[in-house]
Amino acid sequence: STLVVAISQSGETADTLEAVRHAKEQKAKVLAICNTNGSQIPRECDAVLYTRAGREIGVAATKTYTSQLMALGLLVAGWMDDPALFADLAAIPAAMRQTLELEDAIHAAAARYQRSDHAVVLGRGYNYATAFEIALKLKETCYLAAEPYSPADFLHGPVALVEAGFPAIVVAPAGAVADDLTRFAADLRDRGASLLMISDQADALRLADVPLRLPPIRSEWTSPLLAILPGRLLALHLAQARGLD
Questions:
Q1: φ and ψ at 192, to 5 degrees?
Q2: Which long-range contacts (CB under 8 A, 24 or more apart) does 45-50 make?
Q3: Backbone torsion region of residue 54, taken as left when φ is above 0, otherwise alpha when ψ lies between -120 and 50, otherwise beta
């Protein structure tokens, strides 16, 4: 049999609900990951994992995205019945608190990009989605034309945009793709880009105009839970620097 996982903050997303109903018609089992108790999507699913993050007041969802990542991680760890995976997740809250200590550095960095009207956000592997989420938050809160790419896609054409001072945010925590991302960041620097690096790797951070050091990554698969936080804080402080609510 097939399991379909439906992820919705509100539990009322029309296209997700339609997909749930189609999956049920095809006799699939459907699991909802949702933040809103008693909403429509959980009512129509076979089981539900509530993220219990509290009401999401702003349109630019933050805590619910992060808690959805954790719910998915717990689902995988439980499915595999692997204590090591649960231990990886249990270490995340303390690492998140340490990551949030970057806020003062990010507040100072926001002034660098206050007048920027475009940026690129780059990530690979587990943090390809992180690049998309950071870019989305910069669009939603700062009205900044921030585009997410994998390095391979960016090199095939869009790299021609890079000129002196071009803002490039690179998400490069430790893991299988860290060395490739560091080499790519070095190329961007040679082209004149202004690099903001989100990493726990010394070689990557040395390249950066704005180095944002993550705590040591216990396990690559959990790194998106940490790597997203500096991007969110950048969106917050850049929006404030630009006079936006």
A1: 105, 5
A2: 45/6, 45/20, 49/74, 49/75
A3: left
Q: 145 by DSSP, 3-state: which?
A: strand
pLDDT tens digits for range 206-244: 999 999 999 999 999 999 999 999 999 999 999 999 999
Query: Which tokens in the block code for residue 178?
Result: 């860290």
Residue for token digits 């860290």? 178
Rounded Cα distance, 22 and 55, in Å = 28
Q: Cα separation of 156 and 149, whole Å?
A: 11
Beta strands in 112-202 (DSSP E): 118-122, 145-149, 167-171, 194-199
Could you give the strand order of the β-sheet that contains 3-8, starting from the edge strand earlier in sequence?
A: 3-8, 29-34, 47-50
Residue 20 DSSP code: H
CA 152, CA 163: separation in Å to the nearest integer? Answer: 19
- What is the per-residue pLDDT across 166-176, written as a single tens digit (0 to 9) for each? 999 999 999 99
